[in-house]
Amino acid sequence: MRNIWAEDDEDYIDEEIELAKLTEEDIKKAEKEFNVNFPKEYIELLKIKNGGYLKYQALPVNFKNSWADDHIPLHYLYGIKKNKGIFNSKVLLKEWGIKEKAFITISGDGHTWTVLDYRNNKIEPEITFIDIEENKITVIFKSFKEMIDNLFEYEDEDDFSNTVADVNTSKLAKELLKSTDINKKIQGLYVWSSSYEDMDELISIITNFLESESDMAFRYACAELVVGLIRSEYITDESIIDKIKVLIDTDEEEIKFYYELLMDFLNEQ
Length: 269
Fold this sequence. Notes:
By secondary structure, the chain is of the alpha+beta class. The chain has helices at 24-34, 40-48, 89-95, 144-150, 170-177, 182-195, 199-212, 216-231, 238-248, 253-268, and strands at 52-53, 58-60, 71-73, 76-77, 80-81, 84-85, 103-108, 112-117, 126-131, 136-141. Strand 8 and strand 9 form a beta hairpin.
């Protein structure tokens, strides 16, 4: 199987995405939790890296969606570790109104999700794309292997939909964040956080967005990123952490999850 993982950055690891080394015990616990068998290709990839960002970050589709007319994003894959990665699947899907119990999230940001779909087969799941904005659930591949084989690098010189793997610059991210399109603004956040450039400025921008933005998907992305930065100890300034705690201490279910995740982390310190 080809190597799909993007190269690691030595200065920063997103510990919400890139988990500690996968163990056989992790696999057994997860399969027992969900009462399924995971695709062997998925496990093989996670034994190389237990979750992480991808060098190929697009999948071809034959339908228009909230992201593009002919493809969907797949920026990263979740790994397997207790209380992290795919173990958060049930909570995440419930928060976004998805009640199907046979879905396991392997990637997504709240606006869209890519899931292992065990509705028809407990051994070999299909791959399904959930578009929250369009209110559509679509089977896109018959197997995990087929999905991996179809990953490609999306390039469009006239569009800021370039993948994080192709252009990891805060300059691109800043242009994306100027857009009125929520999808592009969310992409801008992930592009910037993956570039590791001007991170103090990014942190300031995220906190400002949490104060001013009303779009739930965008606020969710901000909360996910900033809590990830704290948990990976990229943010250590107590005044900033205290401000973030206040901003995400909300009744909004989608944001409350990250507040609780943050408090659990801080209480363990």
